[in-house]
Structure formats: structure tokens, C-alpha cells
């Protein structure tokens, strides 16, 4: 009986807290959806009704990501991450650490650059047709162009880092058969 309790205690300490796991998967869905819709929109002619409708959904998802990251980042800084049962080797340790820092930076940068693009351009800032986010910026076409470029190059980085991140999680689970994926489940 005591062995089972000790074993489950060890397992629970190697997983992220429930709040961190919920936020991770919620944000993964929101961000991957925003990426796919954003990518699709970049192939549509500006001004066509389908692009406008999809961009409204895209902006709503992006602003949701901004609210969620504002909760998640302080939580991550205060709760930290669980210890590994078997510590990763030096390369994997630094690769994971670097990728996670980059993901956090991009999760903050992308919605902020998207917001700046729309707000400085004087465009709509809808949230799923329910309300408009306040526009806190003056009309500034130069700022709109710069923010749109940051948003575009940020998206290229995000495609690459998210792809590597998912491949790494699958590699740990199916080839190294270690605990890494379990930590987030
Ligand atoms: C995690 C959040 C976000 C991600 C991953 C994301 C991703 C993308 C991607 C991949 C594109 C297509 C590439 C490009 O043309 O830049 C795009 C375009 C766009 N995004 Fe976002 N975005 C996010 C948040 C936002 C937010 C919050 C807004 C505005 C409120 C926004 C507004 C736009 C606009 C207006 C475009 C079209 C830009 C153009 O064609 O010039 N995005 N986004
Ligand atoms: C199918 C998609 C995904 C899978 C399978 C996945 C898997 C994982 C796993 C297993 C971990 C724990 C790694 C560890 O502690 O060593 C993790 C952590 C993390 N993931 Fe993902 N992930 C996915 C999508 C995403 C996306 C789209 C983002 C953000 C754009 C993201 C951002 C993060 C971050 C920042 C961490 C570090 C944990 C933290 O400090 O909160 N993940 N992911």
C-alpha cells in the first residue's frame, strides 16, 4: 500500500501542475488554429469576404492567446517546472530550455504584433462577434507596416519551432520511450 502511494507521489511530482497542463493544451489548440488560418489567409486576395471573415476568427483566436499568455507566463515563473525523474543529458536539457524560452517569446510577440498591425491600421479588433477590443494606438501606417513584418517573420519562426517542438515530443515518447510527454498529460 505504502509503495503504491510513494510511486504515485513520484509520478505526480514529475508532471506539470494541472493549471499548467490545461493552459498548455488550450493554447496549443488556439495557436495552431491561428497559425493555420493565418497561413491560409495569406494565400487569399485582400478584401475578399472569405478572407475578411477568416481574419476576424484569426484575430479572435490571437487575442485569446494574448489573454492566456498573460495568465500563463506569471504562473510559469512562480510555479517553475517539475524535476525530471531521470535528468536529460546536457544537449537535450539546453535544447528543450532554449525551445521553451523561444516559444514563450513568440507566444507573447505574435499577438502583440498582430494587435499592433490591426490597431495602428485602424482595422477591426473583434472577439468572435461578441465585442471589439479597445484600440489603444493612434492611426500610424508606418507602425502598421513594421508590425505586419514582425508578425510575418514571427510566424516563420513559430512554424519552425512548433514543428521541432512537436517532433521532439513524439521522438521522446516513441523512440527514447522516456517520461517527457507524460509530464504534460
Ligand atoms: C498567437 C497569435 C497569432 C499567430 C500565431 C498569428 C499568425 C499569423 C499568421 C501565420 C499569419 C499569416 C502570415 C502573415 O501574413 O503575417 C497572420 C496574419 C495576420 N494576423 Fe496573425 N497571428 C496571431 C495573432 C494575431 C492577432 C492578435 C491579430 C490582431 C488582432 C492578428 C492579425 C493578423 C492580420 C491582420 C494578418 C494579415 C496580415 C497581412 O496579410 O498583412 N494576428 N497571423
Ligand atoms: C501537438 C502539439 C504539442 C505537443 C505534443 C506538445 C508537447 C509538449 C510536452 C511533452 C511538453 C513538456 C516538455 C518538458 O517538460 O520537457 C511541452 C512543453 C511546452 N510546450 Fe508543448 N506541445 C505541443 C504544442 C505546443 C504549442 C503549439 C506551443 C506554443 C506555441 C507549445 C509550447 C510549450 C511550452 C512553452 C512548453 C514548456 C512548458 C512550460 O513551461 O509551460 N507546445 N509540450
Report what the structure shows.
The structure is a single chain. With 185 residues, this protein is mostly helical. The protein has five helices and two strands; from the N terminus they run H-H-H-H-E-E-H. The protein has helices at 2-13, 18-41, 49-79, 90-120, 141-176; strands at residues 126-127, 131-132. The protein has a two-stranded antiparallel sheet. The site of one protoporphyrin IX containing FE (HEM) has 26 residues, from helix 2, helix 3, helix 4 and helix 5. Its main location: membrane. The chain crosses the membrane at residues 22-45, 57-75, 95-115, 153-175.
Q: How many domain modules?
A: 1
Name the shape in a single word: elongated
- Helix fraction? over 70%
Which structural category fits the helices and strands? mainly alpha
CATH architecture term: Up-down Bundle
Ends: how far apart? 25 Å
Outline the biggest β-sheet.
2 strands, antiparallel
Task: Give the percentage of residues in beta strands.
Answer: under 5%
Membrane topology: Multi-pass membrane protein
GO cellular component, one term: plasma membrane
Main location: membrane
Subcellular location: Cell membrane
Amino acid at each position: 500500500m505504502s509503495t503504491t502511494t510513494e510511486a504515485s507521489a513520484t509520478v505526480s511530482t514529475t508532471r506539470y501542475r494541472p493549471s499548467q497542463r490545461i493552459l498548455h493544451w488550450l493554447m496549443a489548440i488556439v495557436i495552431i488554429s491561428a497559425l493555420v488560418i493565418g497561413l491560409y489567409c495569406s494565400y487569399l486576395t485582400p478584401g475578399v469576404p472569405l478572407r475578411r471573415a477568416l481574419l476576424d476568427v484569426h484575430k479572435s483566436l490571437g487575442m485569446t492567446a494574448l489573454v492566456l499568455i498573460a495568465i500563463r507566463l506569471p504562473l510559469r515563473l512562480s510555479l517553475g517546472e517539475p524535476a525530471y525523474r531521470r535528468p536529460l543529458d546536457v544537449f537535450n536539457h539546453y535544447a528543450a530550455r532554449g525551445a521553451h524560452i523561444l516559444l514563450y517569446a513568440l507566444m507573447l510577440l505574435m499577438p502583440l504584433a498582430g494587435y499592433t498591425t490591426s490597431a495602428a491600421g485602424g482595422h477591426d479588433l473583434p472577439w468572435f462577434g461578441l465585442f471589439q477590443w479597445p484600440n489603444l494606438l493612434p492611426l500610424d501606417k508606418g507602425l502598421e507596416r513594421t508590425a505586419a513584418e514582425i508578425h510575418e517573420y514571427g510566424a516563420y519562426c513559430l512554424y519552425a519551432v512548433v514543428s521541432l517542438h512537436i517532433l521532439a515530443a513524439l521522438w521522446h515518447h516513441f523512440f527514447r520511450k522516456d517520461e517527457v510527454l507524460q509530464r504534460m498529460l
